Amino acid sequence: MSRIKACFDRLKAEGRGALLPYLEAFDPDYETSLALLRQMPEAGADLIEVGVPFSDPSADGPTIQLAAQRGLKAGATLKGVLELIHQFRQGDDHTPIILMGYYNPINHYGVERFCKDAHQAGVDGLIIVDLPPEEVEELAPYAKAEGLDIITLTAPTTPDERLKTILKDASGFVYYVSITGITGTRSATEEQLRAAMTRLRGATDLPIVAGFGITTPEQARTASRISNGAVVASAIIKEMAATYDEQGRATAASLPTALEKIRSLAKAVRG
Amino acid sequence: MPTNTPITSQLNSLRTGPDERGHFGIHGGRFVAETLMPLMLELEKAYAHAKTDPAFQNELDYYLRHYVGRPSPLWHAKRLSETLGGAQIYLKREELNHTGSHKLNNVMGQILLARRMGKTRIVAETGAGQHGVATATVCALFGLECEIYMGATDVERQKPNVFRMHLLGAKVHPVTAGAGTLKDAMNEAMRDWVANVANTYFLVGTVAGPHPYPAMVRDFQSVIGTEAREQIQEQTGRLPDAVIAAIGGGSNAMGIFHPFLDDAEVPLYGVEAAGLGLDSGKTAASIARGTPGVLHGNRTYLLQDDHGQITEAHSISAGLDYPGIGPEHSWLHDIGRVNYVSATDQQALEAFQTLTKLEGIIPALESAHAVAHAIVMAPKMEKSQTIIVNLSGRGDKDVPTVAAHLGVKL
Prior knowledge:
Strand content of chain A: 5-15%
Largest sheet of chain A: 9 strands, parallel
Radius of gyration of chain B: 19 Å
Radius of gyration of chain A: 17 Å
Order of helices and strands of chain A: HEHEHHEHHEHEEHEHEHEHH
Shape of chain B: globular
Strand order of the largest sheet of chain B: 3-4-14-9-10-13
Structural class of chain A: alpha/beta
Number of strands of chain A: 9
Helix content of chain B: 40-55%
Oligomer: heterodimer
Helix content of chain A: 40-55%
Number of strands of chain B: 14
Number of helices of chain A: 12
Largest sheet of chain B: 6 strands, mixed
Largest interface: A-B, 43 and 38 residues
Strand order of the largest sheet of chain A: 5-4-3-2-1-9-8-7-6
């Protein structure tokens, strides 16, 4: 059984939703992001999204844009991100890792080689922001061959009819982009989220996680109960980045700050 | 669309692309976030409908004639031709359009479409500011809210255009991310669009982006080539021996090339901005120095590093300062139908001055790249041969930049 399925099965038995914290690989350096990644499960991460820095993150708000820039400055490459996950896997064989990023670095790496290397490094799922169902065929066969779930993105703008089509072959879980907008800006209301879940449940039996604009523990709790999981990205990065020094380097406060934020989110999701 | 091109066999035509999924060979496509995907499908449908609706075509023709000022003349540049001593150079005078460039052809088409779609708010990216000015202009004309994203570097080097946009009632957002040029403005315009999808139309200024933009913008710009093809035959009795156009994203080039694509005997030249030189690391020549990749919704030749990160382009001309190129150009390069060449900042500066002195026409620095290649080609050709150069914009906006390069304080 895949790590993703095992994780959601376990949470279902526990009767709660998942917390999916996000970290930008290499932000602000390789060691810090590896240390954070390693300590995330203990802080309460059920699944982890690892962002691959890209020069032109056109679906991201200012917080993740800056994180990506710091990551690139620290030498982030797709190969390096896979190495990071490989290191993490030495000490953790059960927490699902979802790689999130844009298509060009993967395309440049070579889709077949990438899927092989990602699987070997211990990646479980892929969220590729700018690879919609209309284009996913160029990657899908290779991902499938390696047992990688391509996580299908859905949005408030996705019509019901389209939901049925694009979720037909979905695997792993379904990601609901809960606002029309970029990451870390505004938030969906509880009512909006409930209405969306009704629509989505009509089209898939897979677990559904909500992301974009989930900032506070309360929001994470609500979202993880209405859906099957809450993704928190910008809110963690923002608090962590506030601890960096003037040159954008990590300080002694960086890791504890990020972990404390994750703990408070996890507590709310579990509480 | 109706065409006067004598196509012997539609099956062998190079003018039928893209396929139904927006691909030109391996290029093009729709690489956008799910939030935008339904909008792309809606736009595709709306455009397909408008394209075959005579009422839409009539409305567009009306505005092109009475507001934009079409048709634009084809001017035989006799002094330039004589000085170069070779082929006869004809300038397609797109700089005489209202707002001073070819940009309004496309903008007019898209604004009429946006109105048909019931959109009330327009966002657009701009490099040199020509597309931003054109967009702000039609928003003023139709009373629509207008938000323009422009790289902070470009805001600085294109001040006159920024002020024009302000006067036209647009809000100009300087974008400080990256190098603060067209690529960064494009990212920011996409972010605005995704956050305001319900009432907002993204008015793309070039033949790039997700399908159907490359095909739609090309169709609207093809009026340039359709006119030029008729005009050159009226004036010389035959087709030209070369057509030259400058390329950033590639809309003026696609517009003039497309009606000539099936004229196999007419060589076409797309001039990329070499910047400080193709191997200087400071270039915008995506075909000469790029590799295929995916950015801003399409697959195309991109300037990128060994890890698929997009690199910054450089050109003296803000309008060519983009690390990609429209996907149809990438395909035309792959199949060898269009020759992609380049001109440096220095060549463009010289061409700018040469054309101004010899013809009394101040070209945009973008268009000066096309003129620069004509200056290279014409002397090697016979006096009986002809070249059409697409003079895509006027250079008033570039006077401060050129003065600075020539060491003149204004």
